[in-house]
Amino acid sequence: MAYFGKFVFIPLFSIALIPHLAMQTPHTQAGTSVSAYPATQMVPPPPNYRFPNGQSYVYGVEWHLFNAGTATVKMEPAGAEQKVTAIADSAGVVNVLYSVHDRFEARFNPRTFCSLTVVKHSEEGSRKRDTQIRFQYSNKKSVLDEKNLKTGEVKHAENDIPSCVTDVVTGFYYLASLPLQTGNSYSFPVNDGGKTAEVLARVEARERVKTPAGTFQTVRVTAEPISGPLKGKAKIAVWFTDDSNHTPVQMRSKLGWGALIFRLQRIDKQ
Q: What pTM does this model have?
């Protein structure tokens, strides 16, 4: 159960990536670094792209038909930057087995989609941690500082990154900004403070999907890491609305102990 909370509650790419990223994060000392990152590049959003500011996507999470909890993701402007906020809370039988209450905030450059900072507060089972990640493109480093709120232990790690990288939650907004035509494929770098993973996304098919928020015509996209130690260990499917909004209305990750399904409950607007 050690990584159950991370599998269940952090949206989209981190359903598949965070547990493995967490296990692969090097235990480096202050001032040291780990090299080798994928050569893929981020694509800036088109000039006429409109960010879904002020919209909160509220998802119900299911595991073996049980209510596992809720996850809410929101984007809004923050000065010259864009801010993504994610909140995850366990419920029902999952809350009894492994309580999860996570808060996540990421900021990125709206002109390039390059992530700038990530701040996380995680309460998972008996563990409580505060984490900050800074992406320093001037020297191509990600800088992770983490504190165990139970023991007081601190961790510092620095890793090489490419000239632009996205994080595990902003990544699905980045994917939604791309032309999701059936047959298209995209690869891009994702970082959560450890080694950068190269993710390959494939636009596979158009499908009609029913969720509590309504019935939608969608495009199904699968995403998986294709480089380094993450290769072949995780895969997710995301259903985006087949329109200019590309709203993610459903997500599914098939795991050894069952499938996790995120279904859109509603969209709250400011």
A: 0.84
